Amino acid sequence: VQIDINGQALAARGLTAVDVVNALSAQNLTLPSGTAKIGAQEVSVALNGSPGNMAALGDIPITTVNGATVYVRDVAQVRDGYQPQTNVVRRDGERGLLMTVLKNGGASTLDIIDAIRSELPKAVLALPEDITVTSLADQSVFVGAAIKSVIHEALTAATLTAALLLLFLGNWRSTAIIAVSIPLSILCSLFLLHLIGQTINIMTLGGLALAVGILVDDATVEIENVERHLHMGKRPHQAILDGAAEIAGPAFVATLCICIAFVPMFFLTGVAGKLFIPLAEAVVFAMLASYVLSRTLVPTLVMYLMQHQARHAGSGLEAPGRLRRVHLAFEAWFEKLRQGYTVVLAALLQRKVMFGGGFLAFCLLSTGLFAVLGQDFFPAVDAGQIRLHVRAPLGTRLEEMPSFVDKVEKRVRELIGAQEVASIVDIVGGPYTPYNTLYNTNGTFDSSDVEIMVTLPREHAPTAEHIRKLRSALPREFPGNEFYFQPADMISQTLNFGVSAPIDIQVQGTKTEENLAVASELLNQVKQVPGAVDTILYQRFNRRTLNLEMDRSSLAQTGLVARDVAQNLMVSLSSSFQTAPTYWLNEANGSVYNVAVQTPQRDIDSLGAMLSIPVNGPALNGQTKEPQLLGNVVQVKSGSQQGNVSHYNIAPVIDIYTSVDGRDLASTYADIEKLIDKAREKLPRGSEITVRGQIETLKTSFVSLAWGLLLAVVLVYMLIVVNFQSWLDALIIVTALPAALAGIAWMLYISGTPLSVPALTGAIMTVGVATANSILVVSFARQRLASGVPPMRAALDAGSTRLRPVLMTALAMIIGMVPMALGVGEGAEQNAPLGRAVIGGLTFATVSTLIFVPLVFAGVHRWLQSRAPNPLAQGASAPLEA
Question: Can you give the pTM of this predicted structure?
Answer without folding.
Answer: 0.79
